[in-house]
Design brief:
Number of strands: 9
Distance between the termini: 44 Å
Function: Hydrolyzes RNA 2',3'-cyclic phosphodiester to an RNA 2'-phosphomonoester.
CATH architecture: Alpha-Beta Complex
CATH topology: Cyclic Phosphodiesterase, Chain: A
Radius of gyration: 17 Å
Organism: Dongia sedimenti
Order of helices and strands: EHEHEEEHEHEEEH
Family: Belongs to the 2H phosphoesterase superfamily. ThpR family.
Number of helices: 5
Helix content: 25-40%
Strand order of the largest sheet: 2-1-8-9
CATH superfamily: Cyclic phosphodiesterase
Number of domains: 1
Shape: globular
EC number: 3.1.4.58
Protein name: RNA 2',3'-cyclic phosphodiesterase
Length: 189
């Protein structure tokens, strides 16, 4: 079974992302229930190793934070487009959480990721889109901004392949500590 660590997205943000899913020939759009922000791909991990990863992730202490999705872009290899994505506004707390998760996973015995972390939400894995259409799509959506949302936890998901789309199942969530300013705002209500 394959696993990854990610942030779930609230329903209103998923809805906003759905509005981006169209207008690109050859695109296989990610279903809204699968939208997420990957923090660390774990791959195939057996039960005993997953217990070590779980214990390491459970020991993470980090504050909650707010995120907003911003803009669209793509990953390419040579002339081949691999993915089209919605970006994330820069947020140091997200990078801090990613680094803590990377350290915990390596401490649990998995190899280091070794790739530069670029937070994003994958929208599609297009199949040879015409470059002109891709440029039109990116230009047409480059001003995309989601509503800001609170990040209160991160989750380990299991990924099951088969059929047209993968199915993701939340296995365990890990709470982040409350943001001091969020606590003060909620106390006044």
């Amino acid at each position: 079974m394959r696993f990854f660590v990610a942030l779930s997205l609230p329903e209103n943000v998923r809805w906003q992302l759905r509005l981006l899913c169209g207008g690109l020939p050859g695109a296989r759009w990610v279903p809204p229930e699968n939208f997420h922000i990957t923090l660390r791909f774990l791959g195939d991990v057996d039960g005993r190793d997953m217990d070590y990863v779980d214990a390491a992730l459970a020991s993470i202490r980090a504050p909650g934070f707010q995120l907003r999705l911003a803009g669209v872009g793509h990953f390419a290899s040579g002339n081949r487009v691999k993915a089209v994505w919605a970006g994330i506004e820069k947020e140091p707390a997200l990078l801090h959480l990613h680094d803590k998760i990377e350290s915990a996973v390596v401490r649990a015995g998995l190899p280091p990721d070794g790739q530069k972390y670029t937070p994003h939400v994958t929208l599609t894995w297009p199949k040879d889109p015409p470059m002109g259409k891709l440029q039109e799509y990116l230009a047409g959506h480059n001003l995309f901004r989601s509503e800001p949302f609170e990040v209160t936890h991160f989750t380990v998901f299991a990924s099951f392949t088969g059929g047209e789309n993968s199915v993701y199942r939340a296995e365990r969530s890990y709470a982040l500590t409350a943001r001091p300013e969020a606590s003060v705002q909620n106390a006044g209500r």
